[in-house]
Design goal:
Number of domains: 3
Radius of gyration: 24 Å
Number of helices: 17
CATH superfamily of the largest domain: NAD(P)-binding Rossmann-like Domain
Structural class: alpha/beta
Helix content: 40-55%
Oligomer: single chain
Distance between the termini: 57 Å
Largest sheet: 6 strands, parallel
CATH class of the largest domain: Alpha Beta
CATH architecture of the largest domain: 3-Layer(aba) Sandwich
Shape: elongated
Length: 438
Amino acid sequence: MKIAVVGTGYVGLVTGACLADVGMDVTCVDVNAQKIANLLKGILPIYEPGLEAIVERNVAAGRLHFTTEPKQAVAGAEAAFIAVGTPPGEDGSADLRYVLAVAKEIGETMTDYLVVITKSTVPVGTAEKVRREVRKALDARGSKLGYDVASNPEFLKEGAAIEDFMKPDRIVIGVEGERAKDVLARLYKPFTLNGHPVLFMDVPSAEMTKYAANAMLATKISFMNDVANLCELLGADVNHVRQGIGSDPRIGNRFIYAGIGYGGSCFPKDVKALVRTGEESGYRLRILQAVEQVNEDQKHVLVTKIKKHFGSNLKGKHFAMWGLSFKPETNDMREAPSLVICEQLLAAGATMTAYDPVAMDEARHVLGDRIRYSKDAYGALPGADALLLVTEWREFRVPNWSRVKQSLARPVVFDGRNVYSGDELRRLGFTYTGIGVK
């Protein structure tokens, strides 16, 4: 099959590379000429474990191509994925200008029957808008070419996207015709040979499924953070509570870890967009409004604890920060709690040295040289009044505590992800503070 993927960001590049890896002829197109030039040189715009090797392998095999020309990608394709950004507007709604611009380009360049697939996270009703844009472009050409519009939301976890695409929990596809259903069934057959389910449904339901999934996961995180804050007031330990409720199969043990809030490109944006969609429909999504507020408040919790320990004026205090990305195994800094923490500490007069395995270049785009950056984890420690664990990268899980203690000016640890044992660190002579734990 010949496939076009418009957009070479996180979703588009992973989608294109994985489809090529099972033998399809995939052309990825992007308006950013520098990004395409870099991809042609093997330089990826994102960090994702395993992705670089897949891109290199399929480019070498002649199955994966990159271009700035939509016609080169779309002409002769059986399916075209729209995988461009949908950034939030000031009111929280998803900005569809890039999605609809791509739909117009597809209508201007398609040469045969085509299934146009929205892979971007889009509000309910977007497929119909895409359909109209394609039709308008075809009418302007005087073309009677047939096409269908489908919704195929992505459920990729940053840091595990390749595994998620190759071995999906489920594949959700919204279609309205048998011809489009047949194309998508053939496209995803290589990924369903081991029994992974394909869930065909109507298009609005598919569009809603993506938002509902992310909103539910965000809800679990904010719920546990709310519980963690109450645990501190009552003398309970949220880690014990988590184990107690997570063993219930109706609840499960995933996404119930307390911490300093969620970030990234999906949860904050999608919760806001779903809340906005509800408002536009005359319905107030009260739970999700609370989820969003709890998460924003939670990003301030660590600094509140730091000020409780050192005082509100942090002038002259220096902190070591381990982790900058919003989660491990990614360089994504979008909505990262670390940014809120840095801004608050800087405003209070403190200085920082940070280390992250892959996200420091991205962090520099936002924070510049207002903080210092270390080449390794231990290099961030000398002279610091406390160590702040912000992102739970694996290499931070079992540090050499003797070396940490010798390097710090004071043996103080603020654990924003509840990775460490407070009892162990106190025995070693540290002052330890976690989130909702003893």
